[in-house]
């Protein structure tokens, strides 16, 4: 059996395989690095806004034999931007290119005329203003704000305010990283991108909510026992839902990966890429943040509570005395209420129990 | 197998999984049948996938006001036009400026295309002008005007609010006779009793509401402009070209000649005085049903300044003789109606007549969203091919199919026998999503654009999340040493809570976006909300009952190694002697699973 097999088998049995809470500082660090990179990229490189957001030029060619996809190739080559090509009813082509100014537009017109084999004067070129793109963007921001407020309220009611805050941090983290990737890759930000970004809202929280749900259950009677600190319980939660998180993420990412690598790969740039890239990055970041950011943050916040501090003291004292007596702490009496399924798998195994002893 | 323990089961379909399943399948078949029956077997595609119509409008400045065509005004016009076309329920219409004086409107193929075309370029320049002279003409030369003079002095032929030219209207739906009833704010009592047109069907019969030719007494306007009189005499409102051109490109502060929109085979031509109130004086307008008549009307509320002006004009006109006591409501150079005034009015006016809901809403829409700062001429109306080309959709679908195949493969490898439950659930989700989307096209004008296609493909993967949550819960229970049937039942309430909370969050995102945003994003939010709802429906009424049923079989119930529920693989511990502290109520039966 390879090591990975064993790992999956252990995961399958719901064992604790990694101390997420104990190593949280590492992951916080990684996240902060990525986030800072994203922000710097945004500040320095900015975003490559598509035609809907910043306008561009539109060329109308005379009736031509050139196919839409050929024209698109020419236009994209000449301009270095995504081009939208449509055939008008009378066989003319309408070519829209984003992010270019008058000077550049003349140059593209010349090149287009050459490629299409028509005289330059027959191609009409006009600048296009940003259309509803701005409106869409403003309204998307509004939607984002409203959603965040509502979701924090909802999670505060369904769980507790600490979890709501942690979920919000994770969400902002996911969005920042996703936007940052766009800045780094230089993909054009189109309406499709905005839509992809907004999709992440619901889905990024899905995993987080699943973990929180388990956490809420695990820690229901936390103060009535003395074997685990809140952090330990949080760790057990993450581990017991790990397979769930991995599976849900894989299953959500597979179709998106299909869209991104197959759809985008076959066609090169286009709307599919715009949408699926933001989805892919967002979903991956969402899964990551639910495990490495959101839950540890909750643990951090909870451990500040007096009740949890007291619990930590009791637990540590008990462990110290147990260690002094030379007993193993890994063989607890079963304590069903506080620690269901997750811990059960460890009984009698040599599996390193990571009870978060630091 | 242990006998089912009565009273142990939580409510919610657990009791009769078979019945729930059958009902679910019946509903699904019914929906699918409905789809085929309605003939809409594919979802309506958005403009990016199916193309549509592109309308180019050219701004024309009023004589002497050429500087009005500037960036600010153009942008205002863009946002007004955008609001108008989307106000029609045409989602994802795209509006942008092109060059210095053009606005391009892209409208997706679909039910409202025609209507949008009519509304798009309407400048909605609304003026209230006093009538100086009026004359009725018969549209059809063969139809002799009925000579019976109408008994009432006030009712006048009125005009279609839609203001489209003669080449419009398949069914005369938008030929609403609008006979304004102005009502005083204080009592809200109609003042000039408008004669209701009996029906909106345009039968070319002389109606009682037209003024007989005999009563025509062209009174020259006070300032005696012979030129205007000549124009008036020459004007033939029965000619669509002349009618369209008559009131266009005129100055508000000068008298004009204008035509009414043809109504029941007759048309009126007028000499009108300078505009005294205009569209900017209208605070808001909306369609409503008149309490007294049960007819659709358009209510207008004036701004404070507008009220004052309106009071002045109605006060003066109410002292005059017919036709000088009438004021014309001129929309884009066409007289939509010209009611008589018999007393002073102030803050409100209503335009009534044989509107139907649609035409009343259209007019209200136009008046509310304000007059465009510029007049526009429609330069070209072109059909365009899809902006993205078919290959994008094809690639999307192929990629989505491959992605889904991978999902299926993953589920089979990981969940083995349980995938027999997961896969039909996925299939049910996919079918329902497709059917409902197809049905929503004609129902609410739902159009599927590429982002929504992606959203739907992704959402099916997300649906799988729900039953992964459930399966994992069941496996948790099996791990604790329960046999399968109790495990299935115990796992459900917990999994259900998780699924509901997570789906609520997704749904919240969709609902907020739907309410707040416009166009494409809104269409997408709709898809998201729909798939989330379907997710819940499928898990509750399909996956869960199916699981319950299968748990009764030997293969699953005994945890066959291939069932995905093998206690050994899951590392189940031998059943415990439960302490009295066992808080969880339903202690599973303690019979050992027989190893097969």
UniProtKB/TrEMBL annotation, chain A:
Residue stretches making up the Protein export membrane protein SecD/SecF C-terminal domain: 114-303
Keyword Disulfide bond belongs to the record: no
Membrane topology according to the record: Multi-pass membrane protein
Function: Part of the Sec protein translocase complex. Interacts with the SecYEG preprotein conducting channel. SecDF uses the proton motive force (PMF) to complete protein translocation after the ATP-dependent function of SecA.
Cell membrane in keyword set: yes
Main location: membrane
Subunit text: Forms a complex with SecD. Part of the essential Sec protein translocation apparatus which comprises SecA, SecYEG and auxiliary proteins SecDF. Other proteins may also be involved.
Domain of life: Bacteria
Protein name: Protein-export membrane protein SecF
Keywords associated with the record: Cell membrane, Membrane, Protein transport, Translocation, Transmembrane, Transmembrane helix, Transport
Protein encoded by which gene: secF
Transmembrane regions listed in the UniProt entry: 26-44, 140-157, 164-185, 191-212, 250-271, 277-299
InterPro entries registered for this protein in UniProt: SecD/SecF_arch_bac (IPR022813), SecD/SecF_bac (IPR022645), SecD/SecF_CS (IPR022646), SecD_SecF_C (IPR048634), SecD_SecF_C_bact (IPR055344), SecF_bac (IPR005665)
From TrEMBL, chain B:
Record field: compositional bias (Basic and acidic residues): 167-176
Residue ranges, annotated region (Disordered): 138-224, 566-596
Compositionally biased region (Low complexity): 141-166, 177-186
Key words of the record: Cell membrane, Membrane, Protein transport, Translocation, Transmembrane, Transmembrane helix, Transport
Residue ranges of domain Protein translocase subunit SecDF P1 in the record: 74-131
Positions of the SecDF P1 head subdomain domain: 270-373
Residue stretches spanning the membrane: 20-39, 393-413, 420-444, 450-471, 499-518, 524-542
Membrane-protein topology: Multi-pass membrane protein
Lineage: superkingdom: Bacteria
Subcellular location: Cell membrane
Domain Protein export membrane protein SecD/SecF C-terminal residues, every copy: 376-551
Signal peptide range in chain numbering: none
Cross-referenced HAMAP family: SecD_B
Assembly, per entry: Forms a complex with SecF. Part of the essential Sec protein translocation apparatus which comprises SecA, SecYEG and auxiliary proteins SecDF. Other proteins may also be involved.
Family to which this protein belongs: Belongs to the SecD/SecF family. SecD subfamily.
Stored PANTHER family: PROTEIN TRANSLOCASE SUBUNIT SECD, PROTEIN-EXPORT MEMBRANE PROTEIN SEC
Function: Part of the Sec protein translocase complex. Interacts with the SecYEG preprotein conducting channel. SecDF uses the proton motive force (PMF) to complete protein translocation after the ATP-dependent function of SecA.
Protein's recorded name: Protein translocase subunit SecD
